[in-house]
């Protein structure tokens, strides 16, 4: 009997650890019929649920695009709101397939946490927002000030570095969520909020009086934000990476959600390769040939997504800036699809 | 009764060894325990096995090496010197000390407030007893987290900005906290400390002498005044003799905030206030129950002996009530300590907020960090219960 | 000379009626009078403006902050969002499913709470074993033609109740086993139970929730993934069963030794004596304790907001950062406090009542 128990235990232990990763994420997603996507618990412009619980935002659209590419239906996404603390474990454990939660690409995260960054969908930098009443024009004048920060982000480290570098002192007031950060700022607990600039604009519209606050011009860090996948699953990594590339290429070639069907008739070989009419199509990615067509048709190209969520058609009114295409002097550059 | 005691005729009827074995309670217990141990071992093994393989597969770094890595983030309040260049290991101690600080101060305040409320609820004054009852019923039935949020966000908003601070006796109160002047001991101030501890020791000796004298002669000694005189009088005399070796560091408004003096951050105030108010409601009920548990005859006997009311309370009611009060009081103290971990919700830099929060996030080593955090709370719990058990047994012995 | 008795004089006016009551209860001596006056003064200065803010100058209904014109509390924020606070992001067409689940539970509990209703045992069996299955299919769906509603859409008061009810019901059997284990004479079983109970009672719930949310996924193999809600529930159940065990141990200890001996004398096995003799008596005594731990758990469920679940407190907070309704956090907090208070106060009253009733039994 004892032997039996021991054996059962051994078998159990073996079965628990043995067959991991036998199946790629792409196959799992296709079988399941849904992409599981980790997003924030609410950040305007990037991932935010409305009253009905419908998600919208730049990061949300990354997941929708992946769903369109893999399943042919951009609505087949299950959004899982995560706090900053949980996000990496959720991805590592397989609870989610993509983490699209304005996550900064850093060496530690890329190399020590078992993650892969599949591109940059928003080039950001850390900035400051202060109350206009303070009369501050530059971050250099903020010596001795108190800062509201969201816990568990690279922001905390950048702030420390910046002040150490400039020989200034500061006191950090750390909050758990971005909503609380705004509340703390509004109550006057701190002189400034510091966060990625995109977030500052998103937080600003959550103030009772947004006009009373201003974002300072300084950018004190590089914050490339992008979707993250698990390390060791190259197939899935490629799918996410090329989903983003396809959206960039589409913008570059002027293919939009409105004109995709027309573009099918285009003679431009680049467009024809993008839409899967010739060239590599979907074989290398194990996707349907019209994968990119589905993304653009259902979600739109990068420019459309940007304008709709954070840019000129949104309350945030963020300018394209460095997120413009390389051809317009920005940093967004996608490898050619051939 | 075990099978072996039965007549042999019956035992022969039971042939197979397994059924005999099965019906022997001792052996059965042994078997059951072996199974339990095996089951647990298998369970633990599979967890460890899974975790290790998961960690390896995902390329997550393990081990405690991260404790020696530079932390690189600032912490709002620290009882020990800390800068961004210190290690993650040091953030552990910064957080730990902040937890201890708010817990100890919370326990003291909650005990005082709770005793007043508990006694107040038994007051003959209708208004006092009703006010205490309403207080207790309101605050113990609302989640602590909500109370913390309320004190922090709602009350914080009503405080003025630093430039319009409320000033009181050289202290300033504003939305950034309470700024108090800090006395700084100069040369020779150590003598004052020496005298303070000497006063403490002397009081203890005096108390022993007074107790003995009372047992022999029945005469009372004004211990309270003598003790106060020794503990505070001696250092005060020393202070003046040394030529008042003390300067006061006043908080001054420079730039955005006050600099200098002692700063009590609003996160601390909100957490401390909420913990005190919440726990006091429970302590009040414990105190009330303790006082009610003293038989009425005791009070009548004391009155018959002609003891004044204050002495009745001190020598008759309280010692008996305390025996009932202390065990549940212990668990309230433990609860308060554990509840202080809610600090993370408003950003008071306690252990959970700093170490299990920021450090966990920056290093990503969940297992090590959570393990260390839990170990701290377990140790605090065990230490508190050991101390309280010791106190409890001492109290119980004196009474017998 | 008069020979009949004089009619009795009424008691002095200072000891009867309102005046007498006042004198006895509020102004019995100088110290008391001062205290009464001081407290009375504070109450009037504090409560007056508070009542004015909450009731007299308040607005109760409206679609936007524009409806709040009276300068006091803006309860329109609450009434406007009530559905969300109660049901979270659950689809509107499915509200009846939540209502039905809660109604069933309330009915079963009421049945057991009222004295002298028949078939209590069957109802208890139903609540512990059959109800959870029905509740699962009602809330989650996926069978009987009900649409699946993912758990990340659950929220508000219904999520708070789900967490608390599942937490307590599932912790019950574990608690019973642990309590029996702690009283057992088998050293290893006893040691295991003691360590388990003391471990979970020694750590704060928040670290348990952290553990459940960031470590649990690492403990199991790749293929098994837990839903976020399930992870929180596992943490809560592990934690709660330790507290439950202590309540049950208290109940077991209150049973006179003679009962155990009598059961042994009848030749009942351990499990039979527990099931037929000890537990039925002990459970009755445990009810107040169980209700009290339920209250504690109910309040503690608010902690799940820290791991990103939208219980009632979290959902009110997030509604407050909706750009349409900024700046009404005080109303929000007061509303949540009121909801919790109603539940907790009601239950604590019931448990006190029961304690009084049970005391007469012995």
Automatic annotation (TrEMBL), chain A:
Solute-binding protein family 3/N-terminal domain boundaries: 34-263
Glycoprotein listed as a keyword: no
Alphabetically ordered keywords of this record: Signal, Transport
SUPFAM superfamilies: Periplasmic binding protein-like II (SSF53850)
Signal peptide stretch: 1-22
SMART domains named in the record: PBPb (SM00062)
Pfam families with a match to the protein in the record: SBP_bac_3
UniProt-listed InterPro entries: Bact_solute-bind_prot3 (IPR051455), Solute-binding_3/MltF_N (IPR001638)
Family: Belongs to the bacterial solute-binding protein 3 family.
Name of the protein in question: Amino acid ABC transporter substrate-binding protein, PAAT family
UniProt organism field: Neptunomonas antarctica
UniProtKB/TrEMBL annotation, chain B:
Any GO CC annotation of this UniProt entry: ATP-binding cassette (ABC) transporter complex
Domain of life, per lineage: Bacteria
Nucleotide-binding recorded as keyword: no
InterPro entries the UniProt entry points to: AA_ABC_transptr_permease_3TM, ArtM/GltK/GlnP/TcyL/YhdX-like, MetI-like, MetI-like_sf
Keyword list, A-Z: Amino-acid transport, Cell membrane, Membrane, Transmembrane, Transmembrane helix, Transport
Domain ABC transmembrane type-1 stretches: 96-388
Membrane topology: Multi-pass membrane protein
Main subcellular location: membrane
An example Gene Ontology biological process: amino acid transport
Name of one Pfam family that matches: BPD_transp_1
GO molecular function, one term: transmembrane transporter activity
Recorded coiled-coil stretches: none
Cell compartments where the protein resides: Cell inner membrane; Cell membrane
TM regions (residue ranges): 29-48, 60-80, 92-119, 131-153, 188-206, 227-248, 369-391
Family classification: Belongs to the binding-protein-dependent transport system permease family. HisMQ subfamily.
NCBIfam families associated with the record: HEQRo_perm_3TM
Protein name per the record: Amino acid ABC transporter membrane protein 1, PAAT family
Lineage: Bacteria, Pseudomonadati, Pseudomonadota, Gammaproteobacteria, Oceanospirillales
From TrEMBL, chain C:
CDD domains: TM_PBP2
PROSITE patterns hit by this protein: ABC_TM1
Primary location recorded for the protein, binned into one broad class: membrane
One example GO MF annotation: transmembrane transporter activity
Keywords: Amino-acid transport, Cell membrane, Membrane, Transmembrane, Transmembrane helix, Transport
Domain ABC transmembrane type-1: 157-346
UniProt keyword annotation of Transmembrane helix present: yes
Residue spans crossing the bilayer: 34-55, 95-114, 121-140, 160-181, 202-220, 274-295, 302-320, 332-350
Location in or out of the cell: Cell inner membrane; Cell membrane
CC annotations in GO: ATP-binding cassette (ABC) transporter complex
GO BP: amino acid transport
Pfam family, one: BPD_transp_1
Bilayer disposition of the protein: Multi-pass membrane protein
PANTHER family listed in its UniProt record: INNER MEMBRANE AMINO-ACID ABC TRANSPORTER PERMEASE PROTEIN YHDY, MEMBRANE COMPONENT OF AMINO ACID ABC TRANSPORTER
Family, per entry: Belongs to the binding-protein-dependent transport system permease family. HisMQ subfamily.
The protein's name: Amino acid ABC transporter membrane protein 2, PAAT family
Species name: Neptunomonas antarctica
Taxon lineage: Bacteria, Pseudomonadati, Pseudomonadota, Gammaproteobacteria, Oceanospirillales
């Amino acid at each position: 009997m004892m032997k039996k128990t021991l054996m059962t235990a051994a078998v159990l232990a073996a079965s628990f650890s043995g067959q991991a990763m036998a199946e790629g994420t792409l196959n799992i997603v296709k079988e399941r019929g849904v992409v599981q996507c980790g997003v924030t618990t609410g950040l305007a412009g990037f991932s935010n649920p409305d009253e009905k619980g419908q998600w919208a935002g730049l990061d949300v659209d990354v997941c929708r695009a992946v769903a369109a590419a893999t399943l042919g239906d951009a609505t087949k996404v299950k959004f899982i709101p995560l706090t900053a603390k949980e996000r990496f474990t959720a991805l590592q454990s397989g609870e989610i397939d993509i983490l699209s939660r304005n996550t900064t690409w850093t060496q530690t995260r890329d190399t020590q946490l078992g993650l892969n960054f599949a591109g940059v969908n928003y080039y950001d930098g850390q900035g400051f927002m202060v109350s206009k009443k303070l009369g501050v024009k530059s971050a250099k004048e903020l010596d001795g000030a108190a800062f509201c920060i969201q816990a568990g982000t690279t922001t905390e480290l950048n702030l420390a570095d910046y002040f150490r570098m400039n020989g200034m002192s500061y006191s950090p007031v750390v909050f758990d969520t971005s909503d609380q950060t705004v509340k703390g700022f509004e109550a006057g607990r701190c002189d400034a909020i510091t966060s990625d600039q995109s977030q500052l604009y998103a937080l600003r519209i959550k103030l009772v009086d947004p006009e009373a606050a201003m974002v300072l011009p300084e950018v004190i860090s590089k914050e490339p934000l992008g979707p993250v996948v698990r390390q060791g699953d190259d197939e899935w990594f490629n799918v996410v990476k090329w989903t983003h590339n396809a959206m960039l290429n589409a913008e570059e070639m002027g293919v939009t959600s409105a004109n995709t069907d027309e573009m099918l008739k285009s003679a431009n070989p680049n467009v024809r390769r993008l839409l899967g009419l010739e060239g590599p199509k979907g074989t290398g990615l194990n996707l349907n040939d019209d994968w990119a067509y589905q993304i653009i048709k259902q979600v739109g190209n990068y420019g459309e997504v940007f304008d709709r969520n954070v840019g000129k058609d949104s309350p945030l009114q963020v300018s394209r800036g460095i997120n413009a295409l390389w051809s317009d002097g920005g940093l967004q550059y996608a490898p050619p699809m051939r | 009764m075990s099978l072996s005691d039965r007549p042999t005729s019956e035992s022969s009827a039971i042939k197979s060894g397994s059924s005999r074995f099965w019906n022997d309670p001792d052996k059965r217990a042994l078997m059951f325990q072996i199974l339990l141990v095996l089951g647990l071992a298998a369970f633990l093994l599979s967890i460890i096995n899974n975790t290790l393989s998961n960690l390896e597969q995902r390329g997550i770094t393990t081990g405690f090496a991260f404790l020696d890595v530079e932390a690189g983030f600032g912490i709002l309040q620290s009882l020990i010197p800390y800068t961004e260049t210190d290690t993650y290991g040091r953030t552990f101690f910064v957080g730990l000390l902040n937890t201890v600080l708010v817990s100890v101060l919370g326990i003291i305040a909650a005990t005082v407030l709770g005793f007043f409320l508990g006694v107040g609820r038994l007051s003959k004054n209708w208004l006092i007893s009703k006010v205490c009852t309403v207080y207790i019923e309101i605050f113990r039935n609302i989640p602590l987290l909500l109370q913390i949020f309320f004190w922090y966000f709602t009350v914080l908003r009503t405080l003025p900005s630093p430039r319009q601070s409320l000033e009181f006796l050289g202290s300033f109160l504003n939305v950034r906290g309470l700024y108090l002047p800090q006395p700084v001991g100069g040369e020779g101030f150590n003598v004052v400390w020496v005298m303070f501890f000497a006063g403490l020791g002397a009081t203890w000796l005096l108390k022993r002498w007074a107790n003995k004298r009372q047992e022999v002669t029945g005469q009372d000694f004004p211990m309270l005044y003598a003790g106060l005189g020794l503990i505070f009088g001696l250092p005060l005399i020393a202070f003046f003799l040394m030529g008042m070796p003390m300067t006061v560091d006043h908080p001054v408004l420079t730039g955005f905030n006050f600099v200098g003096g002692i700063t009590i951050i609003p996160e601390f105030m909100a957490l401390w206030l909420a913990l005190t108010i919440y726990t006091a409601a429970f302590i009040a009920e414990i105190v009330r129950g303790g006082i009610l548990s003293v038989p009425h005859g005791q009070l009548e006997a004391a009155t018959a002996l002609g003891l004044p009311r204050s002495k009745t309370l001190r020598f008759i009611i309280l010692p008996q009530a305390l025996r009932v009060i202390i065990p549940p009081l212990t668990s309230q103290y433990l609860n308060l300590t554990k509840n202080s971990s809610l600090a993370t919700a408003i950003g008071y830099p306690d252990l959970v907020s700093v170490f299990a929060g920021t450090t966990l996030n920056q290093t990503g080593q969940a297992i090590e960090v959570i393990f260390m955090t839990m170990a701290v709370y377990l140790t605090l719990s065990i230490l508190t219960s050991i101390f309280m058990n010791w106190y409890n047994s001492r109290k119980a012995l004196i009474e017998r | 000379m008069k020979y009949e008795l004089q009619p009795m004089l009424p008691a002095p006016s200072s000891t009867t009626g309102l005046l007498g009551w006042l004198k006895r209860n509020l102004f019995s001596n100088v110290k008391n009078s001062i205290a009464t006056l001081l407290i009375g003064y504070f109450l009037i200065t504090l409560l007056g403006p508070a009542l004015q803010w909450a009731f007299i100058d308040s607005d109760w209904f409206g679609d936007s902050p524009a409806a709040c014109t009276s300068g006091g509390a803006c309860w329109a924020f609450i009434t406007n969002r009530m559905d969300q606070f109660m049901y979270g992001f659950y689809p509107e067409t499915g509200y009846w499913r939540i209502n039905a689940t809660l109604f069933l539970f309330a009915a079963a509990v009421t049945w057991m709470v009222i004295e002298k209703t028949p078939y209590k045992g069957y109802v208890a069996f139903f609540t512990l074993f059959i109800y959870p299955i029905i509740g699962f299919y009602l809330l989650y769906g996926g069978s009987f033609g009900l649409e699946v509603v993912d758990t990340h859409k659950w929220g508000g008061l219904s999520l708070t109740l789900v967490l608390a009810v599942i937490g307590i019901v599932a912790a019950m059997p574990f608690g019973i086993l642990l309590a029996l284990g702690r009283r057992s004479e088998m050293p290893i079983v006893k040691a295991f139970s003691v360590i388990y109970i003391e471990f979970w009672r020694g750590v704060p719930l928040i670290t348990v929730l952290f553990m459940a949310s960031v470590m649990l996924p690492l403990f199991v193999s790749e293929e098994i993934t837990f839903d976020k809600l399930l992870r929180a529930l596992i943490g809560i159940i592990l934690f709660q069963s330790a507290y439950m065990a202590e309540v049950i141990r208290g109940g077991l200890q209150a049973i006179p030794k003679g009962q155990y001996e009598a059961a042994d004398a009848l030749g009942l096995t351990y499990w039979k004596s527990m099931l037929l003799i000890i537990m039925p008596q002990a459970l009755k005594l445990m009810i107040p304790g169980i209700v009290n731990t339920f209250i504690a758990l109910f309040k503690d469920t608010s902690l799940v907001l820290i791991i990103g679940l939208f219980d009632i407190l979290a959902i009110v907070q997030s509604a407050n950062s909706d750009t349409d309704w900024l700046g009404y956090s005080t109303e929000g907090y007061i509303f949540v406090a009121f909801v919790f208070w109603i539940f907790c106060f009601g239950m604590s009253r019931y448990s006190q009542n029961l304690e009084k009733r049970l005391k007469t039994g012995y």
